[in-house]
């Protein structure tokens, strides 16, 4: 296994000692460089699986272009932008997302966890069929590796009309949604499928979560769709309170205590093919543990959660 580790590199440009200490624990072979030119050189190598760029000292309006250059050098590497203030700046996050960057974070622990997730997709068993990613063409991904790889690397990208590499079908919905709901753990029944065609009542729980410092938690949605309140559709048999709390944990990465109801919507809809009702409850909440850090590793549920000072009134 040591030989495998040496052939899969994480290139990192940083002077942050806590970050270097965390990456020393990961399974990838960490290569510490001292300049942006050297980082770009190492990023372009086929053995590089992950690139960590500490943007703390960069001008904020230049970060997106630097990310774009790293991704152009190696479209199959996972690029992570790091910075204590950078990671929580929504304007920088949008700039990074617009240039193809999948992850921006302030957490050294999250960088190390992301590196371990990258490493976990690299070694299919001898009996597993392997596939190529429809986005970056990364080869030799097992079904479960594809299920993990696509939302982590590509959830921020626009939808593509492409054949599913696993089942060879061209999905009618967003390709990421198809992969999540019809393959991997969901196909095996280990996780619930989001699609329930027999349901005529669609219930949603959304949460306005305000921290002790007065800031609100927002989540960055897929396909560069911007920032929204955490929340989503309830699972069958799930109550509004339980479902809303689950959605916050999945999308924002923290547990919350619901403190009230801001709004309840009951929206009937009728068409020739189907009649249904959309029920939406907007809760007020606070973090159950004020010291919990919000999520910063992208997955199918969201890209990241960040604190902001103000919410637009039209959301209510």
Walk me through this protein's architecture.
There is one protein chain. This protein has 316 residues and is of the alpha/beta class. It is built from ten helices and twelve strands. It has helices spanning 2-6, 17-23, 36-43, 63-73, 90-98, 108-120, 143-154, 175-182, 184-187, 240-252, and strands spanning 9-13, 29-33, 48-54, 78-82, 103-105, 201-209, 216-220, 227-228, 231-233, 256-270, 275-287, 304-308. The chain has a five-stranded parallel β-sheet with strand order 2-1-3-4-5, with helices on both faces. A four-stranded mixed β-sheet has the order 9-6-11-10, with helices on one face. A three-stranded antiparallel β-sheet has the order 8-7-12, with no helix packed on it. The model has no long low-confidence stretch (mean pLDDT 89).
Question: What's the structural blueprint in terms of helices and strands?
Answer:
Elements lengths: L1 H5 L2 E5 L3 H7 L5 E5 L2 H8 L4 E7 L8 H11 L4 E5 L7 H9 L4 E3 L2 H13 L22 H12 L20 H8 L1 H4 L13 E9 L6 E5 L6 E2 L2 E3 L6 H13 L3 E15 L4 E13 L16 E5 L8
Parallel strand pairs: 1-2, 1-3, 3-4, 4-5, 6-11
Antiparallel strand pairs: 6-9, 7-8, 7-12, 10-11
Labels describing this entry:
316 residues, alpha/beta, 5-stranded parallel β-sheet
Strand content: 15-25%
Based on Cα principal axes, name the global outline: globular
Rg, alpha carbons: 20 Å
Mean pLDDT: 89
Taking the sheet with the most strands, its summary is: 5 strands, parallel
Residues in helices, as a percent range: 25-40%
Which strand order does the major sheet show?
A: 2-1-3-4-5
* Poorly predicted parts: none
What series of H and E elements makes up the topology? HEHEHEHEHEHHHHEEEEHEEE
Distance N terminus to C terminus?
53 Å
Number of strand segments: 12
Q: By helix and strand content, what is the structural category?
A: alpha/beta
Count of helical regions? 10
């Amino acid at each position: 296994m040591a030989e495998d580790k040496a052939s899969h590199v994480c290139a990192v440009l940083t002077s942050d000692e806590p970050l270097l200490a965390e990456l020393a624990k990961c399974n990838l072979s960490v290569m510490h460089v001292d300049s942006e030119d050297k980082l770009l050189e190492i990023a372009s190598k086929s053995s590089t699986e992950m690139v960590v760029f500490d943007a703390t000292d960069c001008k904020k309006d230049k970060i997106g272009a630097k990310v774009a250059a790293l991704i152009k050098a190696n479209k199959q590497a996972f690029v992570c932008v790091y910075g204590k203030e950078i990671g929580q700046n929504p304007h920088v996050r949008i700039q990074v997302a617009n240039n193809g960057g999948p992850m921006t974070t302030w957490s050294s622990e999250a960088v190390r966890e992301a590196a371990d997730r990258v490493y976990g997709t690299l070694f299919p068993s001898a009996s597993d069929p392997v596939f190529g990613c429809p986005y970056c063409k990364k080869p030799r991904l097992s079904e479960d590796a594809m299920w993990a790889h696509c939302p982590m690397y590509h959830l921020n990208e626009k939808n593509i009309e492409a054949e599913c590499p696993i089942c060879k079908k061209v999905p009618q919905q967003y390709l990421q949604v198809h992969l999540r709901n019809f393959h991997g753990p969901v196909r095996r029944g280990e996780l619930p499928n989001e699609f329930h065609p027999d349901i005529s009542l669609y219930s949603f729980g959304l949460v306005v979560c305000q921290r002790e410092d007065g800031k609100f938690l927002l989540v960055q949605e897929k396909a560069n769709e911007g920032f929204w309140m955490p929340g989503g559709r309830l699972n069958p048999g799930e109550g509004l309170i339980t479902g809303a709390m689950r959605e916050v944990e999945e999308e924002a990465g923290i547990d919350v205590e619901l403190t009230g109801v801001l709004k309840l919507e009951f929206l009937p809809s009728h068409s020739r093919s189907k009649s249904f009702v959309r029920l939406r409850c907007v809760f007020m909440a606070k973090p159950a543990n004020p010291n919990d850090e919000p999520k910063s590793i992208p997955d199918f549920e969201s890209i990241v959660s960040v604190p902001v000072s103000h919410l637009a009134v039209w959301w209510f």
